[in-house]
Amino acid sequence: MDTHTRLHEIISALADGELAASELELAFATLNTPSGRQAWDAYRHIGEVLRSEQHGHALSAQFDARLASRLAAEAAPEAAPAHAEPLPPLSAAIVPPGAAEPLEAGPAAPR
User: Fold this and answer.
1) Considering its fold, how many domains does the chain have in total?
2) Closest CA to 39 of 83, 66, 3, 1
3) pLDDT in tens, 2-61
4) Strand, helix or coil for residue 94
């Protein structure tokens, strides 16, 4: 797995509250980069859309079948080390070292 993909997986796990405590420092370092911040914003936006009632319409049967087929074709994700303890879901803003403003979990805070 390439480094870019791994860093995005770490940011995704952070956004989902599934990041192992041992990877927290790497996640914050990644969020201090333009690419990391862009990935965080993308995952946050995806979460907002998924939770939004406004966008809560049924998917077509064709889309559902294509998605199921693609998921079945994907390799299983690597298991986390047995000693890794996931962090609890984010319930408050996170301020990574050097960040000017907090990163919000869940719906975007008004700016």
Assistant:
1) 1
2) 3
3) 888 888 899 988 888 888 989 999 999 999 999 999 999 998 888 888 777 776 667 788
4) strand
**Domain membership flag for residue 39:** yes
Handedness of CA 77, 81, 85, 91 (dihedral sign): negative
Checking if the pLDDT of 102 tops 60, the result is: no
Phi first, then psi: what are they for 86, rounded to 5°? -65, 150
Residues 89, 93: Cα–Cα separation, whole Å: 11
**Position 101 in a domain:** no
Residue 104 lies in a domain: no
Q: How many beta carbons lie within 10 A of that of residue 28, not counting itself?
A: 19
Residue type, 67: L
Count Cβ atoms below 10 Å from residue 15 Cβ, excluding itself: 23
Residue 103 forms beta bridges with which residues? 94
Within a domain: residue 83? no
